[in-house]
Structures are given as structure tokens and as C-alpha cells.
Amino acid sequence: MIFKLHFRGAILVAAAITGLVTLASPARADRCDDSAKELATQIDRLKVNFRAANVVYLTHPAAKELSVGCRGDKYSIELYAKGDRKPTPEFYALVGSMAAIVFTVTKDDTTTGATRCLKRMGLLRGDKISMRYRRLNMECTRTKKDASIAITRGKDE
Q1: Residue 10 gets which letter from DSSP?
Q2: Out of 15, 48, 70, 76, which could bridge 32 as a Cys pair, Cβ 3.0 to 4.6 Å?
Q3: Which residues form the signal peptide (predicted)?
Q4: Residue 18 and residue 34: Cα distance in Å, rounded?
Q5: For 108-148, what is each residue's pLDDT tens digit?
Q6: What is the pTM of this model?
Q7: Considering Cα of 141, then 36, then 24, then 14, what sign does the dihedral take?
Q8: In the chain, domain spans
Q9: CA distances from residue 112 to 81, 117, 138 in whole angstroms, order as listed
């Protein structure tokens, strides 16, 4: 009888200590938040707009939509950008810079990959292109008004 009382008391004390330790530990920022803040500090005129679920939305004059998403089913991080149907060189440079920072690849490689993906869309290849360049998965889509690119890296890479 006395043994059960001491055992229960020890469990309660251990649970209380564990609860206090978890409350006292500092909160850690998500990889998306870190990537978005780093993008905003490194790229001119890029601003963090808001966060919804696992996606951080960004704004820049060269793009219609920008976002950085984390932890999907098949990828660890995703960069999404939408621009005009015929993207400008400033849009290519923006996507290349953002991808270089997020995926830690050289800016020349990411700009080249994004440019190839976006320029392949057309009459012969269609309005949806999926390609792989420098261990990055790129998917470009085009509508009557917009062209967009989604760059991801798989979870196993």
C-alpha cells in the first residue's frame, strides 16, 4: 500500500517536471518562416505577406503570386511563383534568386532551370511541363493569362 503511494507520487512529480520543461523551452521557428525571412532580407522589394497553414505568402512587383510551402506529401519544401504569360527577365531573375536561397544551389543553375522550364511551354510541348534540373523538380503550367512554376525537392534528397 505504501509502495503504491510513493510510486504514484513519483509519477506525478515526473509529469509536473516534464510539463514545466516543455513550457520553459524556447519556441523554434519553422523552416518556412526561416526561409521567408531570409528571402525578404536577401532580395530587394520582396516582402513577407502572411502565413496560412504550412505556406508563407510573399509579394514582389515582378510576380503576381509567390509562396514558400513546407512539408508536403512528396516534398520537403516548395517554391511557387506566378507571373505573366510571357515572363519578363526580371521574373526569371527573381525565381532564380529565390530558388538559390531556398534550396542552397547556385543562382546560375536555378535561373537556367527555371528559364528552361518556362520557355519549353508552347505549341509543341503543351501548357504543362515537368522536368528535373540539378536535383530540383520543376513543374511549369500556363493559362491564357498566367505562367507559373513550382520548384520542389523530394524528401529523400
Answers
A1: H
A2: 70
A3: 1-29
A4: 28
A5: 999 999 999 999 998 788 899 999 998 899 999 999 999 99
A6: 0.75
A7: positive
A8: 31-154
A9: 15, 9, 12
